[in-house]
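Fold this sequence, please.
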Amino acid sequence: MSTKGIATFGKRTTLALAIAGAIGSVHGVTAAEADTQANEQIEVIAVKGIRSSLKNSMADKKSASVVSDGISAEDLGKFPDLNVAESLQRITGVSIDRSGGEGQAVTVRGFGPQFNTVLVNGRQMATDSAGREFNFDILAAEQITGANVYKTTNASMQEGGIGGTIDLTTARPFDYSGLQIVGSVKGMYESLSEDVSPAFSGLISNTFNDETMGVLLAVSHQERSVQVNQINTAGWRGGQTISNARDGVLFTNAYIPRNWDQIVDEQDRTRTNASLVFQYAPSDDVSITLDGFISKFEVDSQVTDLASWFEPDRVGSATIDPSTGTLLTFSQDVGLHQGSGDPATDFVSHTRNSRDVTNSGVGLNVKWDVTEQLVAKFDVSNSNAENDRAGRDRFNVVGMTNSYSFDGTGDVPTVLHDGFTNGSLPDANLASLHYNEKGNQFTDEDEITEFKADFEYTPDSLVFTKAKFGVYRQEREKSSYQIFGSQCQFCGYGTEAPIDAIDFRPYTANNYFSGLIDTFYTYDGDAMVDYLAAEGYPITPTLQNNRYTINEDVTSLYMNFTFMYDVGDMPLTVDFGARYSNTDVDVSAVQSYISDVVPTSDATLFTNVYGPANDITQGTSYSNLLPSLNIKLDLQDDMVLRFAVYDSLTRPTMSQLSPATNFNEPRRQNLTASGGNPALEPFRSENWDVSYEWYYDDASLFSFAFFSKEVDDFIVSLTGDETYQMTDRSGPDFNCSTTNSDLCTSDVVATTEELNGQSEVYTVTRPRNGESARITGYEIALTHVFDNGFGVTANATVVDSNVKVDANSTQSFALEGLGDSQNLIVFYEQDNWQARVAFNNREGFLRQLDNGFNGEPIKTETFGQWDISASYDINENVSVFVEGINITEEELVQTGRFANQVYSVEDNGSRYAVGLRGKF
């Protein structure tokens, strides 16, 4: 059992407990006074709209025993934004990552998605991602009635979120009396694709049999025709010698990008959600809730890509930034290579960004008032998630031997390909076949089964007001597998492409980056797969020996106690307890290791050869005691001061626990792989918070919070060298085996280091424990509602750490995702009108310490987004609305170690919705 931090916790909190006890001796409140105080803290609001949403959220925040913030639906079926994550980013300390222009994952106080526990109606849901992070884009906002972000914790709350715990709530029939019917229809316009797509939602709820039975059904469906414009590289390679066969060495120790892709990703996104809830109250003491849901989210992605591959030994001319060693401009010229082959303009077609996600779940909850003083709650649930992509994605490359040049001196880097100017194109008959594959993406499956028994005891005491205790059990199984096959029969651009068979044709990208080539060639990738099969060279995907299954069982026990006192005329609440958690992890995997690397007809591309499959079984177990203390002092009726000190943990993300090693496509001077570590232990954090809240008017609030987190056993993914024995090779030269490839007889084998030798060194990325970090920060927020219908909400979060990476740093540890953020919302609500303008800004942060390619960092630059919405109530039942997301069409920019090393630029455009909402 891990007890690290308990002694420290005791030192930090002994004084606080002693002070609380001494204060409590001044004057204990009566039970009647406690009831009165509780009633005063919770305001019943019957109206709808922005003000009611604010008042509900403030009432929840004020009455909570922990530091929290939240959002309430403005009305049944009317969440503030088009996407749940987009609404959460308005909360102080919360920022998001996007996919296809919509919110997908949430960061809290600088801690990324894997550090935050996401619950739906108090239950943790299975996720389609490879890790623990929850993807919010599977949820329809219309079915959410509220979201609370708990930034501190007590013993009764589920462990797992060092950053925070996010609990989403959905509608229940007992929340509403009688028949309720809500529906909406809307059309959504995408500025890049210039398409309009439909969306609709409907909810019907009814209670009957004297309000003892209720049923609720909710259904939503959304379609989006999305275009994502992007330019990117796999990474910047440092320490390179820049040269050519004509002039020799131009520069040494220079940075050059590995490649450059100009991408147009056209996606058809379809999301369908449905949920059914049945509630029954057989007596005044018992209520039973049975609910189920299903979500289907499909992303049909078609990427069209004008690609270029850069080699340092064929640079015809170049300029360099002497301060960073970064090439600013350079060319790749035909006839100047020194072993890497001539450059080629590549036309890539792939579907790797597709998703096929199914989430489902069912749960049973029983609440039983055993006595007037004891309440018991029992909950059992099961949820499943799958992203079924194994063997289904394709990747095709057709190219033309060609020269091109890179220019990184402008706002957006450009690559100019010879023959591609002002919409003109080279002769299509120059196109040649190259590389093809299927099944790059994995299928990820997740299943969570939870059992909870919670008890709340309210004693007849003037001071000791509440005791909570209970048990929690979670059984989780996460698996991942790949079905993959490649075809390199025509690699090297030596075979003319079948122009007609694959529908090789010109392609013009709509609304692409200004100044970049927007007209190039594309083709039918599915027809390419069929052509290869017809020619006797089919792509045959097979189940790969890099699959794994992780079984994780968590058992937790907790006790939590609440005491209430009066300090003069100021009510004081002291809430303390502890949670004990035991985690057992069993991991099984099937693994084949590299036995040879062999050439293809492309001088820069090789093929891995694998040895026999091996079964791997490993596991670990750990226990943690997590104490917590929350103190709340009502300075006056509208002012609250809070102090919290507590321990928390985050378990390693599931994919990090895999013992399997994934070997990437081998390239010249680039043998890479990635793997996990089943022996990883959880992140452990000691935390404290101080917050002040002033509810100075009916729907107005000022708050300030300061927090500190000291995290031990930080898991970092590091890239290092690992040596693998090439068991298929034999002496004396240990060249690659002719049994594996006839090309191993060529002269190039002896002069290419990856193709000869008893062993090969792979650059492998793996996670490990061991680092520590201190994160401190503060949050400040103001919400003010004026008498004339206008209102404003503004907040800012500032975070800092004792571990940072600068441009010259070579350290192996830093906090990813840590950055400041700000929000500003101006709204108007009067009579039948509502309007809102919102600005969200996330300042620059470290996206990845290790890009997984060559150990270089990736940084995200500051990104600010403007959103708008407005509605008009035609009558009491029907309203029309308009919404706009990213109306200024801001672009997301990422860089490498230095600011002039652009890693990617992504443009999602803007989107607008116009619709009709009704409630009866």
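The helical segments are 6-24, 31-41, 50-63, 84-88, 525-534, 748-751. Residues 116 and 237 are 34 Å apart (CA to CA).
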